[in-house]
Task: inverse folding
């Protein structure tokens, strides 16, 4: 039963990848290429490239794509459900517990300590994107234009992304 | 400063649920270049515009969803959805976030569109990546007031940044150590208060 196999494989991937979508790629590769031999490696690399260039979390994109290649639309549904299900179970339990114990003072104290660290996490995320995307004057022009659009003209971030895409096409 | 999380508003009207679905759908459709790119989008949509969650809660949610397995974007949708409208809310939020990806990928495989070698797509991404950097940084700046309630917050933040960037320490460890620091400072503060009263 290929659908069940896809669901379980992606369930495993979803349950054991800590640190977001990029952390999933090596796990997906191991399961799909090395263990199940569902796809040739070249096709897998293409899938990852496309997944990075389409909107949405890479994990979902890759699961939908691999699922389709292996077993059609049913396969992509099974794989996407599989990769989402562990998050669903775990986050629901955490959300339930946190809301229940929210009034506890030590949990408050814990989160007051965590919040400044989250700012550091966000800056790290910006840095890791910047590292691979800033290579010349044109990138700086785009960044300055985005900054002005965001703070001076107060443009919505969704519109900013669309405009930056057009700016990229115009400049490169 | 004690922040009380609002109780779950389980009874949202169908219209509100639809609005919620649409908010998450938009975020799913515009999250380009990895999960963290959705942070500025979620901040604007969920915190500033709809006022569904407070800035402090938003920071907590990032920490929690980053520490759990799975994609951060999906995890935070599940969490926020649950907070807004219980189990049904998390289903709707997740569906909203996942659906754009799912449909776009299906479109690509059905019509064999080779988008990754398309020159326009490549050029567009050269514009999108610097924009994402600015957007993510602006989210960090906009959340500073919620994050730095105490002066020691700056020190935690600086130490966390060094740990992440220089020593390449895993985010989960950084989150736990920062939380324990907050916990011990709070405990010490409580003891000092007791001492002062004697």
Result:
């Amino acid at each position: 039963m290929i659908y069940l196999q896809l669901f379980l494989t992606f369930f495993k991937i979803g349950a054991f990848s800590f640190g977001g979508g990029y952390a999933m790629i090596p796990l997906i590769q191991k399961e799909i290429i090395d263990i199940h031999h569902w796809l040739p490696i070249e096709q897998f690399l293409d899938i990852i490239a496309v997944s990075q260039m389409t909107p949405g979390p890479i994990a979902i994109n890759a699961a939908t794509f691999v699922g389709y290649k292996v077993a059609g639309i049913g396969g992509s549904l099974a794989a996407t459900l599989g990769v989402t299900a562990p998050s669903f179970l775990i986050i629901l339990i955490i959300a339930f517990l946190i809301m229940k114990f929210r009034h506890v003072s030590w949990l408050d104290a814990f989160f007051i300590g965590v919040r400044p660290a989250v700012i550091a996490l966000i800056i790290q995320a910006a840095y890791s994107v910047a590292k691979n995307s800033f290579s010349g004057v044109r990138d700086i022009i785009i960044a300055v234009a985005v900054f002005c659009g965001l703070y001076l003209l107060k443009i919505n971030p969704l519109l900013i992304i669309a405009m930056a895409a057009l700016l990229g096409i115009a400049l490169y | 400063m004690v922040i009380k999380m609002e109780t779950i508003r389980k009874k949202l009207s169908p219209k509100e649920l639809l609005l919620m679905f649409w908010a998450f759908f938009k975020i799913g459709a515009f999250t380009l270049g990895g999960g963290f790119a959705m942070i500025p989008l979620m901040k604007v949509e969920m915190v500033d515009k709809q006022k569904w969650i407070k800035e402090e809660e938003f920071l907590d949610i990032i920490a929690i969803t980053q520490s759990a397995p799975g994609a951060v974007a999906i995890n935070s949708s599940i969490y926020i959805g649950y907070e807004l409208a219980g189990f049904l809310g998390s289903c709707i939020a997740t569906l909203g976030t996942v659906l754009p990806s799912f449909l776009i990928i299906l479109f690509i495989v059905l019509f064999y569109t080779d988008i990754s070698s398309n020159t326009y797509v490549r050029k567009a991404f050269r514009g999108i990546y610097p924009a994402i950097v600015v957007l993510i940084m602006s989210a960090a700046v906009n959340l500073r007031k919620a994050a730095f309630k105490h002066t020691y917050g700056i020190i935690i933040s600086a130490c966390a940044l060094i740990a992440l960037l220089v020593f390449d320490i895993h985010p989960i460890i950084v989150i736990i150590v920062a939380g324990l620091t907050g916990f011990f400072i709070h405990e010490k503060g409580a003891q000092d208060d007791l001492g002062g009263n004697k």
User: Anything to note?
Assistant: Chain B is about 75% helix and 0% strand.
